[in-house]
Structure formats: C-alpha cells, structure tokens
Amino acid sequence: MHPVLRAVCALAGGVLIAVGLVLLVLPGPGLLLVFAGMVLLARAVPALRHRVEPVRIRALQAAEESVSSRWRIAGSTLVGLGLIGAGVAWGLVPQLPFGGWSTGGSLIVSGIVLFALLGWSYHRLQRVSAARR
User: Fold this and answer.
1) Nearest-CA neighbor of 33 among 63, 72, 65?
2) Which of 7, 28, 124, 131 is most buried (most C-beta within 10 Å)?
3) Ramachandran quadrant class, 38 (left: phi over 0; alpha: psi -120 to 50; beta: rest)
4) DSSP letters along the chain, please?
5) Considering only CA atoms, which of 58, 56, 60 is closest in space to residue 38?
6) Per residue in 7-60, pLDDT tens?
7) Tell me, what's the pLDDT at 71?
8) What is the rounded radius of gyration, in angstroms, for the C-alpha atoms of the chain?
C-alpha cells in the first residue's frame, strides 16, 4: 500500500474509532463506527487484522439487538426524530448554546445516519431470520 494511502486509512480509521467510542455512551451507532474504523486501521496496520473479527461479531450482534423488538425500534425511531428535531431547533434558534446550523446540521446528519443504520439492521435481521427457516 502506498504510504500516503496508508496514512489516510490510519487517520480515517482513528477518527472513526474515536467518534464510535463517543457514540458508545451517546445515542448513535458507536459499535458499527468502531468496526468501520478498525477495518480501515487494519488496512494501514496489517498486524491489527486479527483484532477486526471480534469487533465485527459484536457490532453485528448489537445491530441485531437494536431491532429485536418493536419497543427497541420505536425507541430508536424516537431518538432519531429527536435528533432531527433538535437539529432543526439548533439551526433556527441561534440563541441556544452552540446555536447555528453547524451544530444543527450535525444533529440532523446523526438522526439520518441512525435511521439508515436502523433500516439496514432491520433488513439484515429479516434476511438472517429467513435463512434460518
């Protein structure tokens, strides 16, 4: 791998892991981002490849658990709508702390990402369930 590409993969992987770790305690797809970061980091540092599989297994388990019941889906949907609503509020009311569209936009993007991952997790669970039958 070219050294510049290796550095870009390492940097992007490190950023994804850092954001994923923050999202482990905040609402968001933390474990999936940690997994994506580990994949990129393992491309830059081949010695880390053996560490990717356990994270992948746990991330996919967490994705399945997030859509395992109607209550969890409803809760995740409410969180996503709350993120988007808060983003609009932060964008429209500059008097709020850190008010403005930079904060509002990041909240809106977080909500959209949550819905995308929720949909992906739901369809993945349906495929796994159909394969087991």
Assistant:
1) 63
2) 28
3) alpha
4) --HHHHHHHHHHHHHHHHHHHHHHHSSS-HHHHHHHHHHHHHHH-GGGGGGHHHHHHHHHHHHHHHTSSHHHHHHHHHHHHHHHHHHHHHHH-TTSTT-SHHHHHHHHHHHHHHHHHHHHHHHHHHHHHHHH-
5) 56
6) 998 999 898 888 888 877 765 667 888 888 899 999 888 888 888 888 888 888
7) 87
8) 17
How far apart are alpha carbons 11 and 51 in whole angstroms?
Answer: 18
Q: Please tell me whether the overall predicted TM-score, pTM, comes out greater than 0.85 for this model.
A: no
> For residue 67, with 0-12 CB atoms within 10 Å meaning exposed, 13-18 middle and 19 or more buried, which class applies?
buried
Angle of CA points 28, 29, 34, to nearest 5°: 130
Query: Residue 125 burial by CB count (10 A; 0-12/13-18/19+): exposed, middle or buried?
Result: middle
Quickly tell me which residue has 């305690």 as its tokens: 25
User: How long is the chain?
Assistant: 133
